[in-house]
Amino acid sequence: MSKLSELPNIGKEVEKQLNQVGIQTFEQLKEIGSKEAWLKIKKIDNSACINRLYAIEGAIENIKKTELSKDKKEELKEFYNIFK
């Protein structure tokens, strides 16, 4: 997969933000993980919300963010609440 925007949930704007924080490939995104990727985006875009975190995790799992497991959403929500 050459463009991050080819992943589920990742549009051109999120792809641009990921690129800005040094994440260019799916492999890099998978290695860094959704939480760290989201934190990097949060540093450049304070409006980064929980839906962006869900979207990144869904992209890593290659599923729509609405298909994330209840447990995964809860884990991400707890993480998000630390930083909001």
Radius of gyration: 12 Å
Under CATH, the topology can be stated as DNA polymerase, domain 1
- Structural class determined from secondary elements: mainly alpha
Helix and strand element order:
HHHH
Total count of domains: 1
What percent strand? under 5%
Total number of β-strand segments? 0
Largest sheet: none
In the CATH hierarchy, the architecture is: Orthogonal Bundle
pLDDT averaged over residues: 96
Number of helices: 4
Find the CATH superfamily: 5' to 3' exonuclease, C-terminal subdomain
Shape: globular
Beginning-to-end CA distance, first to last residue: 32 Å
Highest-level CATH class: Mainly Alpha
Estimated helix fraction = 55-70%
Describe the secondary-structure layout.
Elements: H1 12-20, H2 26-44, H3 50-61, H4 70-83
Helix pairs in contact: 2-3
What do you see in this structure?
- The protein is an all-alpha fold.
- It has helices at residues 12-20, 26-44, 50-61, 70-83.
